[in-house]
Every structure is written in structure tokens, then in C-alpha cells.
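Subject: sequence -> C-alpha cells, single chain

Hey, anyone have a minute? Need the predicted structure for the following. Not urgent.
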Amino acid sequence: MTDLVNLHISEALDLLNKKEISSVELTKAHLAEMEKARFLNAYITETPDRALADAAASDKRRANGEALGALDGIPIANKDLYCTKGIRTTAASKILSKFVPPYESTVSQKLKDAGTVMLGKVNTDQFAMGGSTVTSFFGVTKNPWADENGEYTLVPGGSSGGSAAAVSAGLCMGATGSDTGGSIRQPASFCGVTGIKPTYGRCSRYGIVAFASSLDQAGPMARSVKDCALMLHEMAGADQFDSTVAELPVPDYTAALTGDIRGKKIGIPREYRPDGLNAEVAKVWDKGIEFLKNAGAEVVDISLPHTKYALPVYYIIACAEASSNLSRYDGVRYTTRVDGKTLDEMYENTRTDGFGAEVSRRILLGTFVLSAGFYDAYYTRAQRVRRLIYNDFIEAFKNVDAILVPAAPTPALSYEAFKNMSPVDTYLGDVFTTPASLAGVPSLSLPIGLSDKGLPIGLQVIGSILTKTRFSKFLKYWKNRQDLI
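Reply:
Had a minute. Here:
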């Protein structure tokens, strides 16, 4: 039998339902793999006792012929931004290092209700701020893909680097991630897995530690598109605790996976191929275009003219919202506290001690662009340009069905290279992912090829937003074919 930790979710479900394996066996195999791969530092908190109890309960349901969840018995991990009742949730920060939530995030609860087995909480950049999983208070996560010398010296990407590394290394079958400006798609590319940033509002943000509220979106990470579709079906849907969630029915995403794209028009935006584009990334992109042509799709050159403004617009808006969201961490209630002689001194001591350098940098930048005299010059203007970026996508989708672009500007970088980069240079790693985030459109990253050094390179497939109006028009069509949104 195939090694249990190398199975896809869809394969494991088939074996579980045939009773050829048990959830306890599957869970124990992953727990053993986690123990062997602790050097990767993918997990912040492991929950083996809960996992084995959940697995045993799943096996009992199957044995008794009880109703099963769609993912019953599947071992997964949650990014350590998802609040989990009674289990420490840190956002990879010192300030929340002892926080144990009294409630559960909507998405993790949905997955729990679907019968999943939670193995633990995986590492992330602190408060999801970073593209390498280097800023975590609990130490860096290593990419399970070794360098040319066989050493584990590469970053897994971020901020969902722990999720990507855990899935890639067989330390879980799937994991939740969150994507603000590329935090699912870039690490998926670096670690050779698949990840989806759904349409903004497709999944509830309730109970997920906030970075930038108008950009944050929960999404799945797994070894295949089908596995991600299975997870997303359980994660998505309306939520009374989050007014930004689309109140639309959740389709059967796996029904769209026919592989038939004949006649579909795929847009290739010229702005994503700048001078100096990494040759290996360009080669894989061309390979992906050729795949589509051979499958019967029509490749169309398109323009997204405001793409060049996406990165500065993103960092203005994201940092502004981070400044506001993180103001709640002041040491008064549930955070680690550093006392002072006065209340103001306690605030200052707590936040100085509790936040890392990258988080502090983004709070300062966000506070600056929201301050009197600069609000209109920066924040308001950024919001206006964001609308233009959104309009570019809406206009493009009048003529194409999807857009194909790189997920990251390079293969995985070494820690040494990343350490020597300036903050601005590290932000450039989001150059291909921020436009879709600003527009709120869905985007999937999947591995397409390898670099000359044998490292994975992924491409993004960007789709269109399905509005409530468009939903009513397509409802009849969806009865025969459910489209990913």
C-alpha cells in the first residue's frame, strides 16, 4: 500500500470508506512523520491526544454506520491564526504566546464538523506579516525541498509557510491558510503544493486573527486541486458572525474538475512579463501556456494596465488596516503584559516587547498613512487606485474565462539571501499576487514545473468574481457544471 502520509485526501477518503485503512492508522502515520520532521519547525503547537481521540471517534462512526462528514477522518493542520477553542492560538507572536481562545473560528469549526482530525497549529509569519515564515516568534520554518547540496536552507514562503511545508512534507493531508497579499499562493509555489485564495467573502473571517480586514481571506492548501476543492467546499459559506461573507450557495467544486477546457479563453497579461523576469519562471509560464493550448484553450493577450501600482497600493492599505487592527493588543486583557509606571508606559512596554520588527514596521507605516495631513494623500488615493485595479480585472473578464500568471517572481530563496534583502526587496516577492488580492478575485496556485536546481515553480490561475446578480444568471448553468469561484 502507498505510504499513508503520501496519500491525497481524495485517495484517503476512498480507502477509509472501503475500510481498508482506519483514521487512527492514518493519524498515527502523520504523527510519526511530524516527530521525524520536527527540524522543519512546521508546527507551533501539536495536539496528538486530540487528534487520536478525533480519529477514534471517526472510526466509530464508520463502524456503526452513522452519518459521516465530507472529510471524516482526514488529518489536517490549522494555521496558527485560526482561533481554536481551548487550544493555544499565538499568531506566531510573543504578545499572544499564551493566548487560549474561549471560542472557535468559523472555518475551523466547519472543518471540525466535516469530521477532520486536527493535528495541531502550524507556523506563520508573525500576524501573517512576511513572505518567508522568518518573522515568527517561535523560530523559522524550513522548506522541505532541499537545496542543491541536500541541505534544508530554503524559506518555505509566507505567511502560510508552515501550512505549505507541512503539506509538502507529509505532516498533514491538508491545511488551512490565509491570504492577504499572496500568503497562500506564494508558499504553495515555493513548496510545490496547491493553494486557493477564494473570492473575498467566500469564507468567513470570524475567529481568524486579523491583519488587513478588506484583504484577508481563508483558503485551503493541499497536494492537488481536487483536495483543495474538497476542503473549500467545507470551509466556504455564509456566517452570521461575519457580514462580509457572500450569502450564496456553496457549489460542488469537484464537479468542475472535468479537465475539459476546450474553447475556453485564457488571458495572458503583458504587464506580468516585465524586463528582467526570472528566466526559470518565464520558462515555466510558457510551459503552462503550452499546456493550455494543447488542451484546446485559446490563449489571448490582455492588458491589466494598473498592475504596476498594485504593490504600493497594497502596502498602503494593508499597513493602514494592520495599524487599526493591532491597536487592540495593549496588554489590558488577553495579551502578554509588560507593566509600567503609568498606563501609557504599560502600553508602550507591552507593544515594544510583544511585537517583532516587521510587525512594528508595518504598524508605523500604517499609522503614518492614516495620520492627519497624509490620509488623503496616501490612503484615500490608494483606495481609488484599488478600484482601478478591480476595474481592470472586470474589463478583462468580459473577454476571457481565466488569467494565467506566475505565482512568485523566483523559486524558493535561501535564508541567507532573504536575510540580506531590504524590507522593500522582500515586499517585491508579492508583485504577482497582490493585484488579485486588491480586486478580491479568486486565484489558485499550483505547481507546474521545476527550476534548474530542482525546486518547484507554481503558476496562478485567476478567476472572476461571481456577484449575486451574475449568480442568478448562472444558477441554471451550475446545475450541470459547478464552476470554481
